[in-house]
């Protein structure tokens, strides 16, 4: 089959959906095509590790209704080659797609543990992964959660809340290490333990195999752990092979300019794969959060449809961990100078991340309605220090 689209979007996630909708808003007559390798049409990813486990949402509620944008969604297909000169993409089913303008929104692939332990070990990212884990992570089941980052901390809390016995395993010193200040990391380790989670920090999973109706893991401390299922969240790799094969500039993702345009004038990139420069932070970034996927998708769609404006949005993300929650703006890197301003230690407060007297990131821990104020602070030249920051952002709840 050969088809032709004015705008072809490669990847079927949240960035793709946002781009299709913003193209439609500007170019009502546009012919937009989306080719994505997941069978499901675009859906919201954040509920997979949070709301779906709490029963706040069901899989039917997370559909993004991309069809409403008028885009033709070619699901279950993967673009495997791009001929930039001919403006032609080819998929793994032998179909070809002609395009005028193309958006790469191919997302990222979970890093894998170096062994196969069968269907009960799930590298967690997609709706299919959620469904697979749900089959085994029933009430009372013992689930090992490998990784102490975003997926690991959210899933461990959600699974414990859903009545599973949870063991967290990760090589670092504590949950959230490298992102949060030490006191908060230690508080989180204790908080998870108080909520019934076994937190095994500093422990690597070195091997594993399927055994009967479970998985047996060999750990770096010499122990063996037998569980009903394993959920793995040990980081992701941007899906930039297609861009690389096509000869686009790739360096920790697809390198784009301030219009999210790649080194090819007719190809843009958005979401997890895009390496862009943020002017306020004065550095290039690749951001793997929902807000960036949606915001960059929307922005790329607008630019592709003819609105010439720069993308200068600061990274924003949020999380829910048991009854704790936070919003964050900019860079959370505990190697920066960290100023903690607690209203109640580790329960409610603000953490600032500084570099040379400039605020580069703000963590709003159980502190709400301060995101705009945090953005403004990061835009200011400073210099700031602990005394000028403490008490600056109100600690409203
Ligand atoms: N709330 C949110 O914004 C949110 C929620 C879920 C996922 N995400 C995104 O999804 C992506 C994937 O999340 P993630 O949690 O996998 O990545 P992550 O980078 O947040 O965390 C990776 C974790 O795995 C650990 N790790 C690395 N190698 C390991 C190994 N061999 N064995 C055990 N642990 C190992 C790291 O120490 C770290 O704790 C991220 O890009 C994240 O930003 C975001």
Automatic annotation (TrEMBL):
Protein origin, superkingdom: Bacteria
GO MF annotation list: FAD binding; NAD(P)H oxidase H2O2-forming activity; protein dimerization activity
Cited SMART domains: AIF_C (SM01353)
Upper taxonomic lineage: Bacteria, Pseudomonadati, Pseudomonadota, Gammaproteobacteria, Lysobacterales
Domain annotation FAD/NAD(P)-binding: ranges: 6-295
Protein name from the UniProt record: NADPH-dependent 2,4-dienoyl-CoA reductase, sulfur reductase
Reaction catalyzed: A + NADH + H(+) = AH2 + NAD(+)
Keywords, in A-Z order: Apoptosis, FAD, Flavoprotein, NAD, Oxidoreductase, Transit peptide
Cofactor: FAD
A single GO BP: mitochondrial respiratory chain complex assembly
One CC-aspect GO term: cytoplasm
Signal peptide: none
Domain Mitochondrial apoptosis-inducing factor C-terminal: 300-342
């Amino acid at each position: 089959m050969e088809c032709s689209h004015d705008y072809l979007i490669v990847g079927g996630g949240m960035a793709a959906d946002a781009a299709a909708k913003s193209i439609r808003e500007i170019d009502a007559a546009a012919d937009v095509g989306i080719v994505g390798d997941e069978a499901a049409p675009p859906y919201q990813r954040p509920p997979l590790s949070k709301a779906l486990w709490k029963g706040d949402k069901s899989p039917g509620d997370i559909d993004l209704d991309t069809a409403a944008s008028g885009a033709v969604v070619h699901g279950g297909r993967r673009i495997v080659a791009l001929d930039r000169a001919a403006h032609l993409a080819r998929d793994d089913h032998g179909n070809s797609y002609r395009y005028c303008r193309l958006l790469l929104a191919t997302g990222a692939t979970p890093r894998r543990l170096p062994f196969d332990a069968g269907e009960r070990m799930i590298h967690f990212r997609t709706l299919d992964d959620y469904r697979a884990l749900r089959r085994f992570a029933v009430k009372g089941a013992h689930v090992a959660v490998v990784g102490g980052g975003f997926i690991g901390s959210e899933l461990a809390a959600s699974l414990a809340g859903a009545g599973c016995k949870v063991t967290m395993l990760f090589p670092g010193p504590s949950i959230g290490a490298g992102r949060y200040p030490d006191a908060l990391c230690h508080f989180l380790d204790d908080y998870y333990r108080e909520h019934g989670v076994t937190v095994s920090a500093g422990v690597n999973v070195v091997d594993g195999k399927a055994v009967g109706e479970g998985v047996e893991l060999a750990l770096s401390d010499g122990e063996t752990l037998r569980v009903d299922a394993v959920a793995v969240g040990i980081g992701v790799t941007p899906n930039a092979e297609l861009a690389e094969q096509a000869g686009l500039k790739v360096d920790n993702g697809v390198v784009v300019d301030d219009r999210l345009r790649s080194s090819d004038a007719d190809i843009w990139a958005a979401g997890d794969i895009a390496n862009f420069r943020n002017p306020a932070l004065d550095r290039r970034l690749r951001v793997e959060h929902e807000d960036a996927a949606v915001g960059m998708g929307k922005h790329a769609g607008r630019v592709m449809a003819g609105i010439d404006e720069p993308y200068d949005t600061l990274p924003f993300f949020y999380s829910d961990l048991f009854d704790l929650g936070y919003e964050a703006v900019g860079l959370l890197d505990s190697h920066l100078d960290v100023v903690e301003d607690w209203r109640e230690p580790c329960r409610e407060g603000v953490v600032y991340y500084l570099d040379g007297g400039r605020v580069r990131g703000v963590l709003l821990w159980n502190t709400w309605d301060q995101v705009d104020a945090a953005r403004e602070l990061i835009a200011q030249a400073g210099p700031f220090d602990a005394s000028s920051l403490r008490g600056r952002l109100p600690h409203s709840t």
